[in-house]
């Protein structure tokens, strides 16, 4: 069977640490000779990992872009990789580093390393999913048939994701709980206390003031309260304090099913696993928070899962798990690929039904509104599709799409479509009859949501499929 290899890069720029890895992804047509082609990623091999760097900062808040650029350049060199060798991957800006100004700094400094198809993403929900895949929690859920949560606890945040027994993500969210929420000198003087940590302290009737010494007992109490809040979250309990410390831009974590197993990743996970460390070893509460979690009800209430990766979970997820492939019954003009950062306009089932019934004006209005909101001339229209659609339904949908896009799109702009169901080739052929001169890419078997962005790479495995990366670009 035809197969192809791609080199993927993962770069994780977090509140505390920065890492780079390279992975080799192998794609293969896994269908039999008498079946419709089906391209899948059949193997992921980690081929290089950098040492763990302290994230370079200009001050407490802003990243040192030049310093990050030097780290990445050094690691490309050490790995013997040039930017043009990488075809996919992700830069994940995480925790308190994920703010709009910092994202701009990183984009500017790393633009030369982007290769053909490397993306820059940030956002607490995406980080939660990527870390949960990198830690092995998703795989554990599938192998053991249980609802498995991964808590990726770093310097600034705790990113939480719940995987169903089939590997689907069923809940995700993020709290401002992390090792560097409170920083302390060796004499227990508070050098930094975040608004969220201050809020947690005040809920206990405690005051933590920067520049003043803190009682070790008080700091430990705050860490214990943080552990209790994580336990509350996994149990599906609500409290005003949980809402107050929810990370900006993240979803509210609401488990639809009881959590059965829990996995920890991130830098604090190592502090959970290893006892006997100096309490202020890192100049923050990371060790104390790890100890508080280890002694909390979390370890009594849930089955504990050993992570395959702890502090490297996000970077492994970024390099090995952000890329997927489209279905193989697709329509595309090769000259239009690759594409980066296509904003997604998602139609509901009801809107799609109205299009099939001939109401193309609703789509025309949605497209005009979306282009104005995003200030973009290009976008990707995502459709739920239909199971076993009739020829007439495909023809009517193609007619509505063509009429609406003819009105709303600039003449020189291509039409990009993604359909969840396996119907892109038939739909694309019908649209091509109506748009013989307009550029066209129609892919399927990709799940997208409103506000996502999509990257599409060059076709792989003899042109049978297109590698894709779905991104949620949310900067805190």
List the helices and strands and how they pair.
Elements: E1 3-13, E2 17-29, E3 39-49, E4 53-54, H1 65-79, E5 88-93, H2 100-110, E6 119-122, H3 124-135, H4 137-144, E7 148-153, E8 158-163, E9 169-175, E10 182-184, E11 190-193, H5 195-203, H6 216-235, H7 240-244, E12 261-265, H8 267-273, H9 286-294, H10 298-301, E13 303-305, H11 313-320, E14 323-325, E15 331-332, E16 339-346, H12 349-356, H13 361-374, E17 380-383, H14 391-408, E18 415-419, H15 424-434, E19 440-444, E20 453-456, E21 467-471
Parallel strand pairs: 1-5, 5-6, 7-12, 12-13, 16-17, 17-18, 18-19
Antiparallel strand pairs: 1-2, 2-3, 2-4, 7-8, 8-9, 10-11, 14-21, 15-19, 16-20, 20-21
Structure report:
This protein is an alpha/beta fold and 476 residues long. It has helices spanning 65-79, 100-110, 124-135, 137-144, 195-203, 216-235, 240-244, 267-273, 286-294, 298-301, 313-320, 349-356, 361-374, 391-408, 424-434; strands spanning 3-13, 17-29, 39-49, 53-54, 88-93, 119-122, 148-153, 158-163, 169-175, 182-184, 190-193, 261-265, 303-305, 323-325, 331-332, 339-346, 380-383, 415-419, 440-444, 453-456, 467-471. The strands form four sheets. An eight-stranded mixed beta sheet has the order 14-21-20-16-17-18-19-15. Helix 1 (65-79) packs across helix 2 (100-110), helix 13 crosses helix 14 (391-408) and helix 14 crosses helix 15. The chain is globular and about 75 Å long. The two termini are 45 Å apart. The relative contact order is 0.14. The model has no long low-confidence stretch (mean pLDDT 89).
